[in-house]
Amino acid sequence: MDDVSDTGSSDTQGNPSEVGAKKTILIVEDDQVLMKMYVQKLTSVGYNVLTAIDGEEAGDVFKKNKIDLVITDIMLPRVSGIEFLEKLRKTPKGKKVPVIAWSNLAREEDKNRVVDLGAQEYIVKGTLSLEQMAETVKKYLS
């Protein structure tokens, strides 16, 4: 939990939200390479990005910050993305926030489960470019 970092950029060029009102995204991902790529891309287009490496840490970060969108992996250590989403949806704050779930696995039961829990999208990681992820995020934060 000590390694939760706010990697938001002060650069407002291309900011998709109102001036002075940057949207904050929480990315829950245990693959540090992927995490870094998506954090860099999303900060470069004007979002604040917070990170967590598992669902337990994500719950702590979510409670302490104003989060406008959650992007969570499904397969995570300690607390899975599905367990995190279940807990998130039981809180007043967590019922309203849009969630994009992603995984390297294209298992239909995982997709059905996260959609049943209120995720807006289920994405297979290998099918999405950085640009496509930025466009998907923009769709929920415009």
Query: What percentage of amino acids are in beta strands?
Result: 15-25%
Could you describe the largest sheet, including whether it forms a barrel? 5 strands, parallel
Strands in their spatial order, largest beta sheet: 2-1-3-4-5
CATH fold assignment = Rossmann fold
The number of domains is 1
Any idea what the CATH architecture is? 3-Layer(aba) Sandwich
Helix content: 40-55%
Determine the mean pLDDT: 85
Please tally the helical runs, counting DSSP H or I stretches of 4 or more residues. 6
The H-level CATH homologous superfamily, spelled out, is Response regulator
Compute the separation of the termini in Å. 30 Å
Q: Which sequence of SSEs, written as H and E, runs from N to C?
A: EHEHEHHEHEH
CATH class: Alpha Beta
Oligomer kind: single chain
Task: Tell me the radius of gyration.
Answer: 14 Å
How many beta strands in the DSSP annotation?
5
The shape, in one word, is: globular
Briefly note the structural class of the backbone: alpha/beta
Taking pLDDT < 50 over at least 5 consecutive residues as the criterion, the unreliable ranges are: 1-19
Summarize, please.
It contains six helices and five strands. It is α/β, with parallel strands linked by helices and 142 residues long.
Written account of the structure:
The protein has 142 residues and is of the alpha/beta class. The chain has a single domain (24-141), classed as Rossmann fold (3-Layer(aba) Sandwich). It is 41% helix and 17% strand. It has helices at residues 32-44, 55-64, 81-89, 92-96, 108-116, 130-141, and strands at 24-28, 48-52, 69-73, 99-103, 121-124. The protein has a five-stranded parallel β-sheet with strand order 2-1-3-4-5, with helices on both faces. Helix 5 (108-116) links the parallel strand 4 and strand 5. Helix 1 packs across helix 6 (130-141). The longest helix has 13 residues, at 32-44. The radius of gyration is 14 Å and the shape is globular. The N and C termini lie far apart (30 Å). Residues 1-19 have low confidence and may be disordered.
